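Long-time lurker, finally posting.

We've been working with LD-carboxypeptidase (Hymenobacter aquaticus) and I want a structural starting point before designing mutants. I don't trust myself to interpret raw outputs, so I'm hoping someone here can both generate the structure tokens and explain anything notable. Sequence follows.
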Amino acid sequence: MPISPPPLRPGDQVALVGTARKVTAEEMAPAVDILTRWGLRVVLGESITAAHHQFAGSDELRRRDLQQQLDAPDIRAILCARGGYGTTRIIDQLDFSGFAQHPKWVAGFSDITTLNCHLLKLGYESIHGVMAFIFNQAGGEASLESLRRALFGEPISYAVPAHPLNRPGSATGELIGGNLTLLQNLTGTASDCPTDGRILFLEDVAEYLLSIDRMMVHLDRTGKLRNLAGLVVGHFTDPQDNAVPFGQTPDEIIATYAAKYQFPVAYGFPVGHEPQNMALICGRPARLTVTAAGTELSYL
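Top reply, 14 upvotes:
Generated this for you. Predicted structure of LD-carboxypeptidase:
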């Protein structure tokens, strides 16, 4: 079972780090204010004020900053500043031996799926949740509160309305997942995680319907769907189409491949690139229950 880092306590020190797209200290100010109100002390990593084209500094700078926070025993959590692209460029150059001596929460989503999966492969839980860049987004209050509860070790469970494509059933297993594009991209790498017996959750943004289908084909052909305990489908925000329509929605595409198997499937889960992006603890054993009345997800 994956190791769970210690929950945060008031007075703990947390770091904001940019592993992907660049941000500014001004853009981080709302997150710093919120974290301070949570009773935490905030450290801005070197990457927060750095820029190299679209990245939060060069690969070496971002790697060095993240490595420093991974190693520092007084940093109790690392909150990723923003997604975009860039985490996969530095993941293989990181050393997690210091982190293993003092495990800490790492939180983020989208491009940070790379870190979530890599940590799970190493045997540690992490949080798929709201990033600092959008801490103050309109309509995101419940998502932010779910992140706080996850960080501070408070109980979390979710109830979601029924969806017409849902497949009823009950399953238990460790949560794994995140951004579909990243999960497909990580296949065969040192960050690739087994899905057998686990509950997989998926989300994505601005992807072509054809690409979503192609990625689902890839997941299926590589055996990622075959032995799942359950499947949770989140937001597929702003899907794109070609001049000749693909003919299916993202949910319908996923249902095509899920139909080959018997595990329970829940659609419409509030996770992904929208204000409703509830925190999910990657690696945490959970129970998924899908009935005609809706979906419930709780931790064991």
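Before you design anything, note these points.
The chain has eight helices and 13 strands.
Helices lie at 25-37, 59-71, 97-101, 113-122, 141-151, 180-186, 209-221, 250-258.
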